[in-house]
Amino acid sequence: MLLLKKKMMKGGLTLQPDLLVKKIRENLLSQKKKLEKYLEILEKEENDINNKDADKLLEHIKIEQNIVEELNSFKKILEPLEKIYFNLPYKKEDTILKLKESITNLSINVKNKSEDNKKLLDIELEKIKLELNRVNKKSKSLYDKTSPKFIDING
Questions:
Q1: In angstroms, rounded to a whole number, what is the distance separating the alpha carbons of residues 4 and 23?
Q2: For residues 38, 43, 48 and 49, what is the CA-based torsion angle, rounded to 10 degrees?
Q3: Alpha-carbon distance 116 to 110, whole Å?
């Protein structure tokens, strides 16, 4: 990557399109794998929410955060490379365009699944709040029914 940048930054463009395409393809494939893993994690999170397993949910959320960080790193690498690649006068490879399309579709699936999980989690949290309110009212009503009594301890 650094070598590629140095070659591109020097006076004339001694750019090697094949090397650029290879680097983009590698990064896109890695990005695609991460998105697929992200989708798997979101599926597991849905099960965690349905099973009310908070520990597993937290574990999956931590993994999810790492994946998001890695995806952001790919974005930082890919954006400049793609800008260079798509501005070159050479014919564009179909594999790159297909990979980008696949990643776009995966990203949409991830976003939709994430939103579905958020809605599901909101519903479960609301149920818990209602149950807590019901338990609190029930326990308060027990104390309301009993009245304080005085006991003569003088004998």
A1: 9
A2: 100
A3: 10
